[in-house]
Design goal:
heterodimer; A: mainly alpha; 91% helix; B: mainly alpha; 7 helices
Chain lengths: 46, 235
Amino acid sequence: MKNFDNLFIAWMVVWAVFFVYEVSVARRLSRLREEVERLRRQLSEH
Amino acid sequence: MKLRILIAVALGALIMFAGYAALFIAPDEATMHAIQRIFYFHLPSWIACFTAFTVVFVANIGWLATRREKYDALAVSAAEVGIMSCTIGLITGPLWAHPVWGIWWTWDARLTTTFILWLLYISYLLLRGLLDEPARRATLSAVFGIFAFLDVPLVYMSNRLWRTQHPQPVILGGKNSGLNPIMAKVLLVCVIAVLAVMVLVLIDRYRLELLRREADGLRLEIESRSAIPAGDSGD
């Protein structure tokens, strides 16, 4: 298939961008959940 | 958690099927041949981008009308997701253009208004970063967001209003436009796949924003309690 490289890169770009962004959001979400939990505990000790 | 895994598996299958349909089921286009298949990723990324920026616009109006924080959180989340989709469109476009036009980029009306759209929403996020006070930040960025949205219809109409290097619309483009029925079905599958992923990412980003605000609120409360000297009850 002619120009298959460009075609494959385009397909990869679409899903790689979404995937990397979703992984970054999920990691930040998990860190922040722990942080909120810690802050809640800290607040209840006050 | 089980539901999330199920959704992830279903989405993965949909993405794989969309890719297979775009590369192998859709018929070859008569003049551009195989490279035209980028269309099945390029157009859905723009549909996702415009959808996200419309959410920003509606949320901006929601904030200005009600001052409810959830609208501001939704606006910033959708802006980030919209920029991501816009970036995908700006990368896949030149990958398609180069073999067909012989150039990666040209400053015609469609491409220029699109690049301005990307810059406007990057500025929207930068503006938010410059303002510390939450209500002021939400109000100023909402006004800016409404202004930025004016470029969305301009991008959509640009190849109808001006002669552009970018092709004329094949969908809703008037008498001589239209898609082969198989191409239309493959496009629909790809649009559903990209929009489904976009919605999933947007939901997670929105959750993150709400949680960040909760953490900020908790930190402020802890600080204010620590500031009250022990034994001073205020009586």
